[in-house]
Automatic annotation (TrEMBL):
This is MOSC domain-containing protein. Signal peptide: none annotated. It comes from Cryobacterium cryoconiti. PROSITE patterns: MOSC. Residues 19-168 form the MOSC domain.
Amino acid sequence: MTATVESVSRDDRHRFSKATVPGIRLIAGFGVEGDAHAGTTTQHRYLVRTDPTRPNLTQVHFLAAELFDELQGAGFEVSAGELGENVTTRGLDLFSLPRGARLRLGADAVVEITGMRNPCSKINGLQKGLMKRLITTDASGQVIRKAGIMGVVIVGGTVSPGDGIVVDVPSGEQVALGVV
């Protein structure tokens, strides 16, 4: 299966969900134009309170559409943008990517993956019990996070639904994604 962009979203205010739009513009070193989380330093409210000078490693939030399919099977109705992601993908195992992998989106944009999103309790405000589906443990007690991955814009460009996604994996030792 070819990896594609299924949906794109942004919001100029710090709300939990983001509106889906026909396209987004990524700006190198900054993030999604017109999105409240864009910036060279962190824009997430909690992180700003703890260290406002921290580099923004969460400029672009990716979530797999396959998660919506899984959630629907468990009785939840969640659609693109509702979990705050900027880019909803299909056909790409986001969590198998190593730190530093680069996603080429559409004709020009390149985003370098920095880590996993740590789901917050506001998810239950969207639908009760949803948080338990997005952060679980496996049989060995390992924490499994399903709330997407984050990245920084290396090369700007426009991204729209239907655009292809090409993965470039860094050479050398592969480092698993941690939480950013």
